UniProtKB/TrEMBL annotation:
Annotated region described as Disordered, given as residue ranges: 27-55
Source organism phylogeny: Bacteria, Pseudomonadati, Bacteroidota, Flavobacteriia, Flavobacteriales
N-terminal signal peptide: none
InterPro entries: Homeodomain-like_sf, IS150/IS1296_orfA-like
UniProt protein name: Transposase
Listed Basic residues bias regions: 33-52
Length: 98
């Protein structure tokens, strides 16, 4: 076994002993590569393919409505952040009064 370790650059005899034990117990299937670690549990959802048929007027209006709502929400959030930053600046520059 020592000669085989040297010839095949195997770090120690224990590796070969483990291979022999697996082969005796399971046959050649025991020597197959098995991935280690946790399996990937997250699956990625693919985006739905766009249909080739044109949208109805109602579907177009619903999409536009959704887009406009997102824009309004974004602008509201931006305005709130600006006001919070201004309040923070005013609080810093305001002299302490007793």
């Amino acid at each position: 076994m020592g000669e085989a370790c040297l010839f095949f650059n195997i770090p120690n005899d224990g590796v070969i002993i483990n291979w022999q034990r697996k082969f005796k117990a399971q046959g050649s299937a025991g020597l197959q590569h098995k991935p280690k670690g946790r399996p990937k549990s997250m699956t990625y959802k693919r985006a739905k393919k766009k249909s080739t048929k044109p949208l109805t007027r109602e579907e177009e209006l619903l999409l536009e409505n959704e887009s406009l709502r997102m824009q309004v929400d974004y602008l509201k959030k931006l305005q709130a952040l600006i006001q919070a930053e201004e309040a923070k600046q005013n609080k810093k520059h305001k002299p302490y009064m007793n």
